[in-house]
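yo

u said u wanted the structure for the complex thing, so here. seqs first:
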Amino acid sequence: MNWLLSKVEELSGENLYACYQCGKCSAGCPMANEMDLLPNQVILLVIRGDESVVDAKTPWVCAQCYQCGVRCPKNVDITKIMEALRLIKLRKNIDHIKLEKVKKNLPQIALVSATRKYTG
Amino acid sequence: MQPVNILGDKMEIAYYPGCTLKTNAKEFEETAIKVFEKLGIKLKEINKWYCCGTVYSLATDNLMYRLAAIRNLIRAKEEGYDKLVTLCSICYNTLKQTNLMAREDEDAMYKINSFMDEEPDYDGSVEVIHPLQILNEMMDEVKAKVKKPLNKKYAAYYGCLLLRPKEVAIDEYENPSVMERLIEALGGSAVNFPLKNECCGSYNVACNKEAVIDANYRIITNARKNGAEAIVTSCPLCHFNLKEIQKEVKKAYPDFVGLPVYYFTEIMAMAFGVKK
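structre next:
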């Protein structure tokens, strides 16, 4: 097993090999238009050990809405896989957001959630 | 009055506000307290509470981000409550998912309880409830309190976190109907709204606003095309993303026509004739 796959499985607790690439996650994803890789493609690249997936836009666009996970016929919770990919960077202290650039008029609910998802 | 099963024999319930209900979403809290009072239910704010951390942490090894939610549940229990209600969809989701973990994951709770040795051990015994679940059992009482029927067409927008993951869903997760029934009970009409459970883009608003602008355009346009004159929601972040950025949506999509956005308790207050 490649390091990327074992790390993602460890952090997410999900079995990526259960995915049979039906694409239902990507079909239902409300953020798919904004992504460079579709959610099912992310799974495939992680299985292949393609490290470029760690630098993709997709995990950061994921809004943790759980649509993919509830629709997956194989019960793979892709939401957790996206979190694992974010954490691989965040835990190396590579933040995705510069707090000084965040607009001040946002409600706390946006600031706290963005800080939780985009900083390590 | 019919007994409300979800509350048992109590007409007072512990209430957890969360951060945004005290600032941007004040109108949500104020109208909620008033309309529930009209229905004979007291939302009693717990004496001590902390931000729940908003989004639920999903990593198997990150229990740290669940401590705040556990502490809030302990506060409710300490004050003698076995149920806790919260208005914000994100708080609801995080408290509910954390509480499920407390019930099901003994290992995690062993670690959390030993880590927070200053707190009494927590076992998941408080039940987390969303007010729409209470209203779901009280539609007749709601109808009886209506003084000014709404007479408008509304799109009920649930977003994600009241419905997913399905273990925490307050209603049928792919096709919820409780808010539509509430709208009808208040004398309004609820339109068919296919995007009612599609995410608004959430925290993307902090650094990837274009994604939220696109989502806003899709969601509001879909509601309009189905005849809606306003949108109803229960989440302060959905409320912000759907309402506060409509000017920017108009810039990006010149054909965009906005809609007013209300919390479900605001339309209840209007129909009940409760002053803000």
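Residues 78-90 of chain A form the longest helix (13 residues). Chain A has one domain: 3-118.
cya
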